[in-house]
């Protein structure tokens, strides 16, 4: 398997050079292979969101390298980084962030339209994804009419709408009760396995983490384990 994501020696701090300086990442390195699901476990404030944002090209490191599929991403300008992120990366957060004025299907279709996919094709893929996670029957409902678990499953479909090679998730079941969390996690794993993408999933849930291919920890700014 080739590495879909490589992070090498990432350093990241805030308020650099000031008395209030905080070093979040201190030489963090990680590889995630295509088709692999890796759990990232860390306490709140340890820097896992920063690591995910750098991996997903939403932020840049102070030093170190980020590679997607062997391609160097670290030195890209804002426009090139945005284009690469749109084409290659899917994000899932603890809160679904669905567009409230649009239906479940429309929320999955819109990212595809932004990437130039014809509407009929985008709708067909949207319905296929919603069907895979058991919410096709709710495709015409707006987020407010969906349960928390349904909203998060729609968010998964939206993140996968453009067939990204890398999925990054930050506590994707952290806002759900245990029963719903189990259903949503199963749906997420089904989608990831079906597409063969690489996935890096930050979670506090050690039981869910243990069911992924590998578990790594963020400890004092470095990635350990796995």
TrEMBL record:
The keyword ATP-binding applies. CDD domains: ABC_MJ0796_LolCDE_FtsE. InterPro entries: AAA+_ATPase, ABC_transporter-like_ATP-bd, ABC_transporter-like_CS, ABC_transpr_LolD-like, MacB-like_ATP-bd, P-loop_NTPase. GO terms for cellular component: plasma membrane. Belongs to the ABC transporter superfamily. GO terms for molecular function: ATP binding; ATP hydrolysis activity; transmembrane transporter activity. The keyword Nucleotide-binding applies. Keywords: ATP-binding, Nucleotide-binding, Transport. This is ABC transporter. Signal peptide: none annotated. Residues 5-224 form the ABC transporter domain. One of its GO terms (biological process) is protein localization to outer membrane. Pfam families: ABC_tran. It comes from the Bacteria.
